[in-house]
Fold each of these.
Amino acid sequence: MILHKETAQKTAELLLQINAIKLQPQNPFTWASGWKSPIYCDNRITLSYPTIRNYLREQMAKQVEECYGKPDAIAGVATGAIGIGMLVADYLNVPFCYVRPEAKKHGRQNQIEGHVEKGSNVVVIEDLISTGKSSLMAVGALKEAGVNVKGMLAIFSYGFDTAVENFTKNEVTLNTLSDYKNLLIQAEKSNYISADETAVLSQWRENPATWNPVVNS
Ligand SMILES: O=P(O)(O)OC[C@H]1O[C@H](OP(=O)(O)OP(=O)(O)O)[C@H](O)[C@@H]1O
Ligand SMILES: O=C(O)c1cc(=O)[nH]c(=O)[nH]1
């Protein structure tokens, strides 16, 4: 869910401003889920811009408190949300840990890195939600460690039905600063996307799980 329309618009505007939105309809990206996509939203780039990362940090910290109350700790989903998660934890002055997709094969063989108290109230920070699988795996690991997951906050979500169903099934509340709908509005306003790219994106959005580029012969 989007909490504040102004934040959703501003976040989308900032992502476009720093070219964090990549379009490659002829040479699709492969997503974590294995889906092929003409678009990639690289939120990691925001960390390279102090003004923008400070904006995201403050908005996220405020929304964490607004949605879930002050947590005992913040957990970031590795690797995309380690940076932003740490910034949010720092702003709220609470402990931080991050969750790997799976346990390390060497060293201490941890999946959760850092210290997190059993029974503590934790909010999970994610950079981006496509299917929600990565985030929900992190939630699963935290719950297994005896943590009380209050909910999740991400910078961006594509708003796919699959993700909504996955979060509902796992009984995890998801809020995001911005989403695909707001991104498209801002991209059209600023002419970031050409008419051809808009056409590809609407065709892709109809069935993202099975989309493939039309190859001109
Ligand atoms: O909702 P999903 O379908 O799971 O996809 C979203 C996930 O994909 C990206 O991570 P990626 O696996 O590319 O790794 P990274 O965070 O280490 O860059 C992103 O950071 C999310 O965690
Ligand atoms: O699903 C993904 O892997 C994914 C999509 C996207 O737009 N950005 C990203 O970082 N990951």
Note: The chain has one domain: 5-206.
Amino acid sequence: MEILTTGEMEQADRLAIAAGAPGFALMLHAGQAVADAATDLAGQGPILVAAGCGNNGGDGFVAATELAARGHDVSVILLCGRDSLKGDAALAAKGWKGRVLPCDLSALGSPALIIDALFGAGLNRPVTGDPQAMIEAINANGAPVLSVDLPSGINGTTGAIMGVAVRATETVTFFRKKPAHLLLPGRIHCGRVRVADIGISDVVLDKIRPATFENIPDYWQGAFPVPRIDGHKYARGHAVIVSGDLTSTGAARLSARGALRAGAGLVSVLSPDDALGANTASLTAVMVRRMNGAAGFAEILTDRRLNACVIGPGAGVGEETRALVLTALAAKPALVLDADALTSFADLPARLFEAIKETGNTDIILTPHEGEFRRLFSEMSNKHPLRSKLERVRAAAGRSGAIVLLKGPDTVVASPDGRATIAANAPPWLATAGSGDVLSGMIGGLLAQGVPAFDAACIGVWMHGEAGHEAGPGLIAEDLPEVLPAVLRRLYDRFGIDY
Ligand SMILES: NC(=O)C1=CN([C@@H]2O[C@H](COP(=O)(O)OP(=O)(O)OC[C@H]3O[C@@H](n4cnc5c(N)ncnc54)[C@H](O)[C@@H]3O)[C@@H](O)[C@H]2O)[C@@H](O)CC1
Ligand SMILES: Nc1ncnc2c1ncn2[C@@H]1O[C@H](COP(=O)(O)OP(=O)(O)O)[C@@H](O)[C@H]1O
Ligand SMILES: [K+]
């Protein structure tokens, strides 16, 4: 499903109006959708609408009118004088025949529901003064809060808090989600998110051409790998995972197990001499091969059947890992660079990015967490410290020439071609040692099956989040590969694939 920035949403609005939908009709639909959600939340109790002076407040007036017509006890508090409302918002306020309370915090009372219609897409500066006091009072009131479009104070495009922001129980937005409904901290302030149809046709998307999508199965169903009935293990690809030395072999094994469970036909751990014993003693379905440094690695990669490679988990930081990465880039298998493979280039990121661009290989994925991202893209982050996560990852993909996947509760995947996805399905107990190692392996396993890199990254992130839910609280990294069959089974069911 597409995600629209507030600018793209304005464009949708303009295109819909140009195609014949009156602007006020869109506001009427929006207000009605808010009224529907409010009825579900408030029961029969009194409802207070906190309205701002723009069209978000206009939606609030329409909702108030609709709810009063349905028999609810409704009152409205308005941030400004009624006569300063303009356009559709003024029209909406005209339809409201009930009380309008002045902007007095004591007027909030004890409603069964507060409808937050202070600011939506038009928020363009930090919140101070009366609106700030109003937002703080709404948060302190204790009543459930229904936010119109966005929790007031949240920037719709970046998800940032502009000084202070409403904490909603539920948010009703219109036509499509905005980045703030998925990116933190915005998502935390939204509560449940409902997307309402307000009469804007999907046809407008042909003109807007949005490049940001929610990372959900509908988005990548077409790229999801399904083993062929007449296939064999070699047809499902062979992923190789580079192991660290004797003191750090577990990360590569976790990664390898993730690759195998994600469907690679074969998985090998490439092990330095000193770690051969540890790796062979702890692996069964995953194979182990001796690898003597970068020269040995280059020799192994001449076998083109080894079509996907993961370097980084437990690899160690330094010149040896840098040499392994440059070797893999030259050999051109589909490649995941994670953890130490990224940190090894912290002091010379340009060397990595040049090598990536020189290969012409488009199947390269970098999978940093925030710390690794900052190390690798520090120059860029220092120049634009206020960018949103979405913008930062997009810029990093452009800068590096690779797919960049920035982990966290709102993992963003971006491609140098401009596409990006945001995932919102990861539970917090995924933040546990080794969980990222499994993710890099899962993506390697998908690449081995021939899934294009951007899709492989998106599918890996989504399945990793679902595996987190499947294993539940108390999860440790070892659990993740073991619950993948259940996640895959549900995907097969959802896609209607026989098994
Ligand atoms: N774009 C669309 O397709 C639709 C938009 N609708 C509604 O319209 C909203 C956007 O309306 P507007 O563009 O009028 O914007 P808003 O109603 O979000 O707010 C704009 C007003 O707030 C002021 N303002 C901004 N930041 C402020 C701050 N920090 N402190 C004090 N005042 C501040 C602005 O100067 C302006 O007067 C959407 O969020 C949505 O609720 C709906 O009516 C349905 C259709
Ligand atoms: N608060 C959170 N909510 C959901 N997922 C999270 C959260 N914090 C981290 N994660 C996920 O947990 C994984 C941790 O990966 P990483 O930091 O690389 O750990 P490790 O190096 O120990 O494997 C990533 O997939 C990340 O997206
Ligand atoms: K709002």
Note: Residues 2-210 form a domain with the Rossmann fold fold (CATH 3.40.50.10260).
Amino acid sequence: MSLLANSACKPCHKNAPPVNASERQAYLEQLPEWRIVEHDGIMKLSRSFSFRDFANALAFTQRVGEIAEQAGHHPVITTEWGKTTVVWWTHQINGLHLNDFILAARTDEVAE
Ligand SMILES: C[C@H](O)[C@H](O)[C@H]1CNC2=NC(N)=NC(=O)C2=N1
């Protein structure tokens, strides 16, 4: 398990600091397939995963749902034929928190 995936999520509240630019860079190095996207001025972490059919994309979606429920932190998941897109951000701070990078790393692990 990667260092990030194995880190514990920190309790998050609306005054929690978002990750700064240098932290963002350092975490992204551990998540080479993830991209930062900006929707309505909110930074989010996004990755699409390919599968051989809808059933496999859906099974992965369920595994991501389980890690989200365990952590109490929830992504937007879009499931299509052969493809699942996962987007993480922290609603409470309208941006990226360390927890989003931890959950992205755990997402990578349940894709394997
Ligand atoms: C009350 C509850 O803990 C919060 O609403 C949690 C639930 N899941 C969450 N998920 C995400 N991605 N961001 C949040 O800020 C968030 N908040």
Note: Residues 37-112 form a domain with the Gyrase A; domain 2 fold (CATH 3.30.1360.20).
Amino acid sequence: MRVQICAVGRLKAAPEKHLLDDYISRLDATGRGIGISALPVCEVEEKRRLQGSELMEREAELLLAAIPKGALIIALDERGRIETSEAFAKRIGTLRDSGAADLAFLIGGANGLAPALRERASHVMAFGAMTWPHMLVRVMLAEQLYRAVTILSGHPYHRA
Ligand SMILES: C[S@@+](CC[C@H](N)C(=O)[O-])C[C@H]1O[C@@H](n2cnc3c(N)ncnc32)[C@H](O)[C@@H]1O
């Protein structure tokens, strides 16, 4: 199963980018042995000056166009479900075992994800009830994906 993070906005050369690249490459290196690989992070951006719901709907279109066709979608949203790292790892392992080819994680921009996109997702996950900057959410998600593959492969990175 291939996993991909797809986000609104461009991450310039910054400490967050360094961390993100590091976790994605660790995720790919550890995940391949257990049937999970990482696609490059994809970023989308609307250049026109749209506002509010019009902007969110356009960003939703761009996100859906950027992910692999037929990918299962997990949306990142503070109104989503909070779970432990072990439960998240189990969720990823179950999807892999079910034969899912591609799994896309979608992160919104400053306005958040369009409600229709959240409804389309097979799961909506939250890193707590607080709102985090989308640049940090990418890094947090990449780390949790790396942690998940270490849990699934019995690697000692995660200590419960
Ligand atoms: C700055 S936030 C947007 C907040 C926006 N006001 C909203 O209501 O969704 C940008 C993106 O980061 C992600 N995000 C922020 N906080 C999060 C959290 N606690 N859990 C999961 N994702 C989060 C979501 O994908 C969100 O669309």
Note: The chain has a mean pLDDT of 96.
